[in-house]
Amino acid sequence: MKVPASWLIEHLDVDEEVTAQDLADAFVRIGIEVDDVRKLEPVTGPLVVGRVAEIEELTEFKKPVRFCRVDVGESDDAEADKPDENLDDDEDDDEGPFEDDGPAGIRTRGIICGATNFAEGDLVVVALPGTVLPGGFEIGSRKTYGRLSDGMICSARELGIGDDHSGILVLPPSTASPGEDANKLLGLEDTVLEVTPTPDRGYTLSVRGLARELSNALDVAFGDPASIEVPEAESDAWPVRLEDTEGCKRFVLRRVKNLDATAPTPWWMRRRLMLAGIRSISLAVDVTNYVMLELGHPLHAFATGSVKGDLVVRKAKPGEKLTTLDDVERTLDVDDVIIADDSGVISLAGTMGGASTEITPESTDVLLEAAHWDPSSISRTARRHKLFSEAAKRFERYTDPQLCAVAVEFAARLLRQYGEGSILPGRTDEGGVEPNQPVTMPISMPDQVAGVRYERGVTVKRLSQIGCKVNVGTSEDGTALVTAVPPSWRGDLVQPADLVE
């Protein structure tokens, strides 16, 4: 899992002097493998926010080429950097006159761009001549395609903040103004940690879980992002039948209507998703991915208008098929847990949703789903279909059943805040999960196993720090005992040896 250090630190009461390397060292001490500590490469020179004022499609070339006039916040009387008029034309430049006229009344820079995923009025990131991008790529003015390109409009990959190179980075409206320094906006001073938790600690596939572990390792206060109030609900969000209660212990739904389908994902969220290696798609989809990374509980969003009748959680029937979101038609196994409606199977539970109820750019009514799926069942399904999604990766390692209602509430509030959606009062909450059973051990057992005598109270303190409810007592023979009730996210603590570890 990739996570920006700034995101982890947001939930920790640490001094400003604490570095990303300090966090990495703390992870190693508590048994969480750190694969990489990557500081974002610096960008030197004039990297600014620009607004695309005008686009001219140059149709005489074999590939898409645009000549853009970009407002980079220069005043009308400002002198743009004068290009070297003796520069040779690019080798793929056709013979033609040099043109550099901009729209009247706006001081702009002319820039050639091969991407087509942006429009006039969009905010973009512009590297002006003199900028040096990650990898030592220096930007200058040059003649190409019969025009003077006076800078470069950048993609996320070129800026070193993501892997997407399919188009340039388009910022949400009102994020910034033309001419503003883009370095601070992009957060290029950050560091990304890549960690690989052990299979029995699935809760650490989240910012919440990792930050909690760091709070214990560094002995600092932890601010829990899951500490939100979940209101009482008097009705269901949508009718649901749980037929496979072994495969699904709990199933929660929350509905959001009147969502602005054109609302952009806020920049701070998009940035975090990019640094975590997840491509931004749309506000509704981005919110579900963000909540998964933040809390560790995967969500699925159904386009409510495409759901036909009651939802049913059951095992697949012989011969049933489902076209998943990756446009692959899959023949289901009778061991697969699925979600169905009156039309048939609409989701491969805990692994990937179906194309028939996919969120589209026109979706304004969304049904948010969070469930507690049986880890073994999800693991078998993922391997059977060779579908190792981010959701399956977490569900097969055990997710916190108490987070289901919190996760959908968190997502619904984000959609209301940034997409102006209306959260309907009902919430479906079917099934339930028994609390973890208490585990009792001699209070001296950690000393005996480690061969080290711990100070009085250390065992109780450490168990309390990982979320256990701890009681100390005495057995009939006088042995001091400690009884710990593991927290809901620690399904791996089932015997004394687990507590010692």
Automatic annotation (TrEMBL):
It holds the Pfam family B5. SMART domains: B3_4, B5. Keywords: Ligase, RNA-binding, tRNA-binding. Residues 86-102 have a biased composition (Acidic residues). InterPro entries: B3/B4_tRNA-bd, DNA-bd_dom_put_sf, NA-bd_OB-fold, Phe-tRNA-ligase_IIc_bsu, Phe-tRNA_synthase-like_B3/B4, tRNA-bd_dom, tRNA_bind_bactPheRS, tRNA_synthase_B5-dom. Residues 73-105 are annotated as: Disordered. One of its GO terms (cellular component) is phenylalanine-tRNA ligase complex. GO terms for molecular function: ATP binding; magnesium ion binding; phenylalanine-tRNA ligase activity; tRNA binding. Residues 434-501 form the B5 domain. Residues 41-183 form the TRNA-binding domain. GO terms for biological process: phenylalanyl-tRNA aminoacylation. The keyword Transcription regulation does not apply. This is Phenylalanine--tRNA ligase subunit beta. It comes from Amycolatopsis thailandensis.
